[in-house]
């Protein structure tokens, strides 16, 4: 698979919510095929304490205008700096990295569950699933209303439900408290999840109990992002596997999660 | 055009830029990014006699101008390398140099014997400096008698170029360098990572599963330069300089301090194409300073 490492020009930075932003870049060359779940490593220069690149899931791509975008939550110095980028700034991006979510047969009803910046791959995933002929349902969780505003991005691909811990939008509680999946047997053939690990484990547990096929996207700490350093491994039934190369998407049955 | 070729223990490298074991996978991971045939050589991921799973996650912590790792030699074993990995990478027109490790001297011997049989592998790097394994590794490289013993034992069974990778976690690295030179090493490479650690103050926990790990990156460069300089002045065998090389200027500094060739390590993670840029940068430097051969740089620092 062809990969790019090149300086990209910042086209736009906007803040749909206070602590998270969408940043888009123009590539100097044609963008290779990006699959849902692929990620990029972004270099953040001239920032004390930031040495390595930072991995981010790809939000969307426009091949014709060579635009690639990301949904990023500010969690430290690197993400803060990136959120301050100005139109025209040059930033080095490396992609596409990692594997992708698998596509089910068209008849399957799928649920996509996530929270925080974990929702980034859901735009491309939702679009591809809809195109594939699947009935798609989204369930997006957050602490309060502002955290789930971003779920509007998914309405063109399927029905969207939300949960908030303070009850300010959707049902109150965590995603796993939502009536869609909490009781009875959830009416889905496949579940995809990306977000905080505790959330993915809770979702994975429900999937397992109901014999629903489930894929999750992990975000272990990485040094390189393309399989060289062996720092980001996760335990699987085949031994330690690189989240950046064999992942980030894994079927929960392949992981050694105690759920 | 200046001559970039260097000679290490009788083995000619097309240029002095190679990639450090542990930071370059098995080379294949970089094939997506640049033409590996341009490299002087590649030191591939450390291997042991038996397969190893390595240490638990988390294995990495970013630090000021560097990183700590505690990978712990995760690899599928030397037989797997010979049967499965090497056939996939042997077509590259660059020296492929395995980095070998063991818990016991016998382990090292057996791995070296197996690699000695592979005609197209011209050299091995004896790793007596891995700080992230419970047995062997750095234990061999931090005492002079054991460094000599393992080098001698491998020298007896390995008949091609033997490079010994030294640990910086010693009182006097020149004693170890002289010891392994006397035991038959053709070259030494230094430095491996510096033993370090990182703490999460909020959680009151170590950031690595192993508590301590190996520090690499620009943070270690001054220490590495000093050690290369000391070793260059103590032994006659050629030195591979390693430690925080991020660009051509860094590489040239190591050569001026006494290195005959260099290994690019942690920089590969940030810019997988960095080695090619370093080769071009060295070429440019030689031209600007009217050198005919890159070998003229070795030890050329004016003190």
For the sheet with most strands of chain A, the description reads: 7 strands, antiparallel
- Domains counted in the coordinates of chain A: how many? 2
Biggest interface, residues from each chain? A-B, 32 and 33 residues
Total domain count of chain B = 1
Rg of chain B to the nearest angstrom?
18 Å
Number of strands of chain A: 16
Give the arrangement of secondary structure elements:
The complex is a heterodimer of chains A (259) and B (303).
Chain A: E1 4-17, E2 20-26, E3 39-42, E4 54-57, E5 60-62, E6 67-73, H1 77-83, E7 90-97, E8 109-115, H2 122-131, E9 135-142, H3 145-148, E10 159-164, E11 171-172, H4 179-182, E12 190-194, H5 197-209, E13 213-217, E14 233-236, E15 239-242, E16 249-251
Parallel strand pairs in A: 8-9, 8-12, 9-10, 10-11, 12-13
Antiparallel strand pairs in A: 1-2, 1-7, 2-6, 3-4, 3-7, 5-6, 13-16, 14-15
Chain B: E1 6-8, E2 11-13, E3 17-19, E4 41-47, E5 60-63, E6 66-69, H1 78-89, E7 95-100, H2 105-116, E8 123-127, H3 138-141, H4 144-157, E9 161-165, H5 173-182, E10 187-190, E11 194-197, E12 199-200, E13 205-206, E14 212-216, H6 221-232, E15 239-242, H7 248-256, E16 261-264, H8 267-270, H9 274-288
Parallel strand pairs in B: 3-4, 3-16, 4-7, 7-8, 8-9, 9-10, 10-15, 15-16
Antiparallel strand pairs in B: 1-2, 5-6, 6-14, 11-14, 12-13
What's the gist of this structure?
Chain A is of the alpha/beta class and 259 residues long. Chain A has 5 helices and 16 strands. Chain A folds into 2 domains: 4-97, Elongation Factor Tu (Ef-tu), domain 3 (Beta Barrel); 109-251, Nucleotide-binding domain of ferredoxin-NADP reductase (FNR) module (Rossmann fold, 3-Layer(aba) Sandwich), CATH 3.40.50.
């Amino acid at each position: 698979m062809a990969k790019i490492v090149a300086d990209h020009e910042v086209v736009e930075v906007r803040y749909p919510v206070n602590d998270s932003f969408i940043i888009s870049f123009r590539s100097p060359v044609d963008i290779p095929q990006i699959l849902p779940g692929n990620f990029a490593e972004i270099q953040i220069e001239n920032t004390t304490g930031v040495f390595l690149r930072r991995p981010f899931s790809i939000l969307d791509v426009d091949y014709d205008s060579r635009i690639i975008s990301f949904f990023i939550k500010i969690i430290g110095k690197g993400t803060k700096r990136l959120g301050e980028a100005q139109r025209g700034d040059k930033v080095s991006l490396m992609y596409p990295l990692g594997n992708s979510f698998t596509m089910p047969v068209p008849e399957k009803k799928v649920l996509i569950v996530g929270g925080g910046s974990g929702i980034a791959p859901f735009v491309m995933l939702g679009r591809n699933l809809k195109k594939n002929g699947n009935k798609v349902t989204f369930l997006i969780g957050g602490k309060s209303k502002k955290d789930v505003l971003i779920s509007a991005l998914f309405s063109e691909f399927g029905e969207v439900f939300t949960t908030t811990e303070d009850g300010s939008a959707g049902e109150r509680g965590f995603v796993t408290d939502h009536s869609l999946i909490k009781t009875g047997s959830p009416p889905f053939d496949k579940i995809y999840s990306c977000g905080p690990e505790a959330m993915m484990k809770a979702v994975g547990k429900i999937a397992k109990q109901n014999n629903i096929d489930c894929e999750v996207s992990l975000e272990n700490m990485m040094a390189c992002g393309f399989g060289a350093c062996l720092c980001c491994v996760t335990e699987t039934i085949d031994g330690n596997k690189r989240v950046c190369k064999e992942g980030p998407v894994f079927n929960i049955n392949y992981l050694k999660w105690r759920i | 055009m200046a001559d970039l070729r260097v000679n290490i223990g009788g083995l000619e490298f097309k240029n002095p830029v190679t990639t450090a074991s542990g930071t370059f996978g098995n080379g294949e991971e970089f094939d997506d990014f640049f033409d590996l045939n341009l490299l002087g050589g590649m030191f591939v991921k450390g291997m042991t006699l038996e397969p190893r799973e390595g240490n638990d996650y988390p294995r990495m912590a970013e630090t000021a101008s560097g990183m700590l790792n505690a990978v712990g030699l995760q690899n599928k074993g030397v037989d797997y390398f010979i049967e499965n990995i090497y056939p996939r990478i042997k077509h590259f027109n660059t020296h492929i140099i395995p980095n070998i490790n063991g818990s016991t001297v016998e382990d090292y011997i057996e791995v070296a014997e197996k690699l000695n049989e592979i005609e197209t592998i011209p050299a091995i790097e004896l790793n007596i400096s891995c700080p992230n394994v419970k047995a062997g590794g750095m234990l061999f490289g931090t005492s002079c008698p054991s460094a000599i013993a393992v080098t001698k034992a491998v020298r007896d069974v390995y008949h091609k170029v033997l490079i010994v990778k030294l640990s910086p976690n010693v009182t006097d690295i020149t004693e170890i360098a002289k010891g392994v030179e006397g035991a038959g090493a053709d070259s030494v490479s230094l430095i491996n990572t510096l033993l370090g650690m990182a703490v999460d103050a909020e959680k009151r926990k170590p950031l690595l599963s192993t508590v301590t790990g190996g520090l690499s990156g620009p943070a270690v460069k001054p220490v590495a330069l000093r050690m290369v300089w000391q070793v260059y002045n103590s032994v006659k065998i050629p030195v591979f300089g390693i430690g925080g090389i991020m660009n051509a200027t860094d590489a040239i500094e190591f050569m001026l301090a006494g290195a005959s060739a260099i290994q690019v390590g942690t920089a590969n993670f940030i810019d997988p194409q960095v080695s090619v840029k370093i080769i071009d940068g060295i070429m440019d430097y030689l031209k600007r300073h009217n050198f005919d051969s890159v070998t003229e740089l070795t030890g050329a620092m004016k003190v």
